[in-house]
Design a protein that fits this description.
single chain, alpha/beta, 2 domains, 5 strands, binds adenosine-5'-triphosphate
Length: 197
């Protein structure tokens, strides 16, 4: 089973691109959704986060405290600590899920594929790219976030140049290049590639 990671900066269109792969029948594992799910449901993880970050990690009603983490994760050391706690659990989930899939290859969508070390859990990687201003406009239209907040997230993520040097394949999602044709072509490449796995 070939495992393929898809990543890209905020608003680049990872989810959009993954939806096209899903239409072609490729199973999708959404690492970011899985993390959110674990924060809320995994009691062991909850205990680890409270030990590491204090009682504010969860609200009095027991929910993962998003606002608290949004504030502290601007600090790269804290991001690193959180990654070290949560990502091994997600990696394990991905392994279990992959072994249950019946297709030449599977995809894992992850906003921070390289930063989290998840690149080591996949065989090939795809980067989704779009100009910064288009990304900014998309996220403003999608989320209730200010330009400043979006810029802060962009600053924490790998630059396009850094990401381009790491991925095996690229998809340009800039409203000019056709995404469906790019995904179809890449799908053929990956189906062929999967024969070696
Ligand atoms: P995040 O890292 O925040 O999860 P993302 O990379 O997954 O972002 P998407 O959610 O796929 O990005 O795309 C951002 C927004 O732009 C969404 O509302 C999506 O519907 C829209 N969008 C993305 N690509 C296109 C496109 N090619 N044409 C039209 N709308 C698009």
């Amino acid at each position: 089973m070939l495992k393929v990671g898809i990543t890209g900066g905020i608003g680049s269109g990872k989810t959009w691109v993954c939806r096209v792969f899903q239409h072609l029948g490729v199973p999708l594992f959404n690492a970011d959704e899985e993390v959110k799910n674990l924060y809320q449901t995994d009691e062991t993880l909850k205990g680890l986060l409270i030990t590491e970050f204090g009682n504010s990690a969860y609200t009095p009603s027991g929910d993962f405290n998003k606002a608290f983490f949004r504030e502290i994760l601007v600090d790269s050391n804290k991001r690193e600590s959180l990654n070290q706690i949560v990502h091994p659990l997600v990696f394990k989930r991905f392994e279990e899920w992959s072994s249950e899939q019946k297709s030449p290859y599977v995809i894992k969508e992850a906003a921070i594929l390289f930063e989290s070390g998840a690149d080591k859990t996949v065989d090939k990687s795809i980067g989704v790219f779009a100009p910064l201003e288009i990304r900014m406009e998309r996220v403003i239209a999608r989320d209730n976030r200010t330009r400043e907040e979006i810029q802060t997230i962009m600053n924490m993520q790998l630059s396009d140049d850094a990401l381009k040097s790491k991925v095996d394949y690229t998809i340009i999602n800039d409203n000019e290049h056709g995404v469906i044709d790019q995904v179809r072509a890449l799908h053929q490449v990956l189906v062929n590639e999967a024969r070696h796995f």
